[in-house]
Amino acid sequence: MGNYYCLVAGLPDVAFDGGKVHYSVEKFCEEIYPQLSSKDARLIDLFFHSRDNENILQMLKYGMETELQHKGAYTRAQLAEIITTAKEGDKRNGCVPAYMYDFLEFYFENVEKGGYMWSDILSAHYYGYAMSVRNKFLSAWFEYNLNVNNILVALLARKYKLNVSECVVGDNAVAEALRTSNARDFGLAGSVDYLDALVRLSEDDQLHEREHRLDEMRWAWLEDNSAFNYFSVEKLYVFLQKLDIIERWAIMDADKGMEQYNSMIEELKSGAVFTDAINNENK
What we know:
Elements lengths: L4 H5 L15 H7 L6 H25 L13 H13 L9 H13 L7 H14 L4 H24 L13 H8 L14 H8 L4 H19 L7 H19 L2 H16 L5 H7 L2
Helix pairs in contact: 3-4, 3-6, 3-11, 4-5, 5-6, 7-8, 7-9, 10-11
């Protein structure tokens, strides 16, 4: 890992709800990303691969020439090549994260059957890949997000009397507890210190406020867990993640948030296959 004294020292201060910041994710890509070592750049790519995932799903649904909504680590042409390689069974590019090929190969083997929640299946592959990186901070960050998302979805599934086990993503101790426990707290009260906060969030009917508080939790986690990372790639990753939160809230409105919420509920109620697909693939 490199030490980026000048880069970190030159970063502007950012605060949650601290007003407009004269910096952006795009500017980060232009000014900071090119100065990273190749090893550290791959860690920063973990952030952008979440956007690549959205772009892959969009291209699979609407075609290779569809206009992409997000700028990820790969261009549309590069993603098209990755998709084509997986579809035709060609030799993989060793520089491309294996989880993308794993997902795409599964997709093309099963797309005709229908009934799959492709976004959740891709997310499971992505989180598994990100949590396996040899960087304790980033591995912990992705596991934290996986746990937060899974717990909230599980609480929501219970509220609507849905099968919790079919809604949970990934493969770790928290995911297993959510799938198998009938306890009120899923048996997590002694191991997940933010469980009570998530339970309170799930009971909040004001979606906009709930999302705001959730991002406050993420922001606090980033600050608390990077306190002793001073001039490292971890500090740059935290800055990038904070920029993303700020930018998202700059364009967020209550109507859009409710639309996303309703879409998630419909997906949960659809009964689409998810858990079995991942479990069978990993056998």
